[in-house]
Amino acid sequence: MNRRNLLKTLSLTLGASVVTTNVLGKISEDTFIFDGAPERDYKPIGRTITAVTIGAGSRGTVYGKYALSRPNELKIVGVADPNQYRNDKYAKDHNIVKENRFQTWEDVFRRPKFADAIIISTPDNLHYGPCMKALEMGYDILLEKPIAPTEKECRDILKMAQKTGRIVAVCHVLRYAPYFVKMKELVSKGAIGEIVSVQHLEPIEHLHMAHAYVRGNWHNSKTSTPIIMAKSCHDLDIVRWIVDKPSKHIAAMGDLKWFRKENAPAGSTARCIDGCTVEKECPYSALKHYYRKRIRIRHLDVPTEGITKEEQGNIILEKLKTTNYGRCVYKMDNDQPDHYVTSIQFDNSVTASLSMEAFTSYGGRRTRVMGAMGDLVGDMNELVYTDFKTGKRTIFKPKAEDIEEYKDAGHGGGDMLMVRDFVQAVANQDKSILSSDISVSVESHMMAFMAEKSRKSKKILAIKL
């Protein structure tokens, strides 16, 4: 099916506004499948943008996929990662020459500038150093969130970006997801009247919580970043973007309730592989998920190609013996809250609540936007608009039809669409193409820092921008 031949532009009168929607199909009188990757009026690039990826893990691999799908627009010419498996795989995928492969981020900058941009997808505590050095050397930057682990470092990077005039795109990918773009459009054009309040749920999903925030790289806030920043600065950012007013005050509550030593069942052991008598019935069993079901094994740096199932299993078992991914979820040195609620007051009395919950059977953000003349209710699969004046409902379902590079991209398709805008911004040296330039993305980080201070102090705090 040719998307361009199918695409029809439909103008819908919603509330007091006219909203233009690129329609791929119509399910019923009030339900539309809309274009998940709308065409933008970009200037021609004229040449291929080159980039070096620092951090070849999950996020670096995702962003690198854009270069593999659109090699005339983006080429990855270098990689830095101390993990040999990740370094080798990334270099092979992108055909990176030996002299452009590095072990550490410092090694990259011992060379004179040899690319247009740097993609920083390192662990949270390794964002500040390479970002500041890249700016100093004149690179444009695609920076994984969070910007940095501390308020001072975030502000330092912002100042350096302003001083050097370089582009720093923060990977707040939800701003590029078609679902949230449509939500933003409806609110901005006045479809629901004046915005009054927002409710936003971030269901982490119980197994993802155990994997990333109990066993994984973000299990301890002291060695990474607080979970409100590590997981939900995306959500604070999208709420701020939708509301489109300065944040004023914040109050937060939350704690680590379940993944604690006192909740370990009788018969459990330090590792799931150590003869735990309740392992088979435990919902968080590392053996069940990594070894038997082979879920999320790429995060354990386990090969998925060119290897037999038995060989792969042996590698997984070794990982469960030697890494945190094999440890009992009740006996880790984790400190991240497993439930966290935040209330925010914006300018003009607009309020918002964010609830981040570990114990759900599902993922995918849920959002309710309430206005004086209508409301929006959505779960990233569909967005339902109700007009209070007429009682009419209109349903929008985002979909990217027959565009391979956007399928299963993650974050509602926002990952690849963000990289597309970054490439265009670098090619045209125009940061206005980006909706997540550091100058606007930094506010949600300040909100997260103040939320954590509020949670610990049990006080309502003013947000200082």
UniProtKB/TrEMBL annotation:
Residues 184-459 form the Gfo/Idh/MocA-like oxidoreductase C-terminal domain. GO terms for molecular function: nucleotide binding. InterPro entries: Gfo/Idh/MocA-like_OxRdtase_C, Gfo/Idh/MocA-like_OxRdtase_N, Gfo/Idh/MocA_Oxidoreductases, NAD(P)-bd_dom_sf. Pfam families: GFO_IDH_MocA (PF01408), GFO_IDH_MocA_C (PF02894). Residues 51-171 form the Gfo/Idh/MocA-like oxidoreductase N-terminal domain. It comes from the Bacteria. PANTHER family: BILIVERDIN REDUCTASE A, BINDING ROSSMANN FOLD OXIDOREDUCTASE, PUTATIVE (AFU_ORTHOLOGUE AFUA_4G00560)-RELATED. This is Oxidoreductase domain protein. It comes from Pseudopedobacter saltans (strain ATCC 51119 / DSM 12145 / JCM 21818 / CCUG 39354 / LMG 10337 / NBRC 100064 / NCIMB 13643). The lineage of its organism: Bacteria, Pseudomonadati, Bacteroidota, Sphingobacteriia, Sphingobacteriales.
